[in-house]
């Protein structure tokens, strides 16, 4: 996997390009809610702002726990590019990570941007906070239960980021999770990367029908010889798992998100 990201996408076609220009989130591309079928849109609403051609996702002082009966600490601001769930009271819905989850608010099926294969890249920075995490995932729509795998483009816990400048480093999570997809074997790891996550960096994947390759700043860091073969939505988020205290607003800043389609 020696080819750089730029070399790998030579000949690809730019299909999606959000540089967050303007003063508000483009809701023709993004839903500002985190899995709203499990908690309702009001509780799931992302705290965010758009200015200076940047999106900021953050945890606000007045933000409630997403599902306090499951985890009274977990708060999350997330935006996603699709949504699918079953009828009220059912167990049908995306990313059902706990057996107790039931649909509490019906959602119309939405596919704003759900690519099939190609290359996703994102440019972000974040000042790490203990007990917080930032991530970009791709997940299946789960319109059929087996279409449920996840491509974790990257996830970073504040506790796993250390130092600055020449001493900087981070354990960056990336890889595949099968969830309900029987064709995928779990292949996820935390890869040591010598970067200061408080500075701007580029994270990316190249996703083909046969494999997925993960990149940081154009350099390949992990390769998986398997791949989901159905459309996936993007989920871009910041979590807080710590005890509630004020002043934990360390925004996750996003400069751009792009998708390049495979050449025909």
Model regions low in confidence, pLDDT < 50 over at least 5 residues: none
Structurally, how many domains make up the residues? 1
Topology pattern, helix = H, strand = E: HEHHEEEEEEEEEEEEEEEE
Radius of gyration: 18 Å
Terminal CA distance reads 22 Å
The appropriate CATH architecture is Sandwich
Proportion of residues in extended strands:
35-45%
CATH topology: Jelly Rolls
How does the major sheet shape up? 8 strands, antiparallel
Query: Could you give the count of β-strands?
Result: 17
What is the mean pLDDT?
A: 94
Number of helices: 3
Shape: globular
Tell me the name of the CATH class.
Answer: Mainly Beta
Write the layout of secondary structure elements.
Elements: H1 5-8, E1 13-18, H2 36-39, H3 41-44, E2 48-51, E3 54-57, E4 75-80, E5 82-83, E6 110-111, E7 118-126, E8 132-140, E9 150-157, E10 161-162, E11 169-177, E12 187-193, E13 201-207, E14 212-216, E15 219-224, E16 232-240, E17 252-261
Antiparallel strand pairs: 1-17, 2-3, 3-17, 4-16, 5-6, 7-13, 7-17, 8-9, 8-16, 9-11, 10-11, 11-12, 13-14, 14-15
Which terms summarize this structure?
264 residues; eight-stranded antiparallel sheet; seven-stranded antiparallel sheet; 40% strand; single chain; Jelly Rolls; mainly beta
Description:
- With 264 residues, the protein is mainly beta.
- It is built from three helices and 17 strands.
- The protein has helices at 5-8, 36-39, 41-44, and strands at 13-18, 48-51, 54-57, 75-80, 82-83, 110-111, 118-126, 132-140, 150-157, 161-162, 169-177, 187-193, 201-207, 212-216, 219-224, 232-240, 252-261.
- Strand 10 (161-162) and strand 11 (169-177) form a beta hairpin.
- The two termini are 22 Å apart.
